[in-house]
Amino acid sequence: MKPIRLMRGFLTVGAWTLLSRVAGFARDVQMANYLGTGLVAEAFLVAFSLPNMFRRFFAEGAFNAAFVPIFSKKLEAGENAREFAEDAFTGLALVVAVFSVIAMVGMRWLVLAMASGFAGDARLELAITYGNICFPYIFFISLTALLSGLLNAGGRFAAAAGAPVILNVIFLGAMALAYHWGWDMGLTLAWSTPLTGMMQLAIVWIAAWRMGYPLRLRRPRFTVDLKRLVAIAGPSVLAGGVVQINLLVGRQVGSHFEGAIAWLSYADRLYQLPLGVVGIAIGIVLLPDISRRLKAGDVTGGRYALSRATEFALFLTVPAAVALMVIPVPLISVLYERGEFTAADTWPTALTLAVYGAGLPAFVMQKVLQPLYFAREDTKTPFHFALHSMVVNVVLAIGLMPYFGFLAAALGTTISGWTMVLQLWWGSRAMGDAARADARLLSRLPRILLASILMGLFLYGAQIWMGDMLTPTGHRYLGLAALCLAGFAVYGLAALIVGAMRPADFSAGLRRG
Question: What is the model's pTM?
Answer without folding.
Answer: 0.71
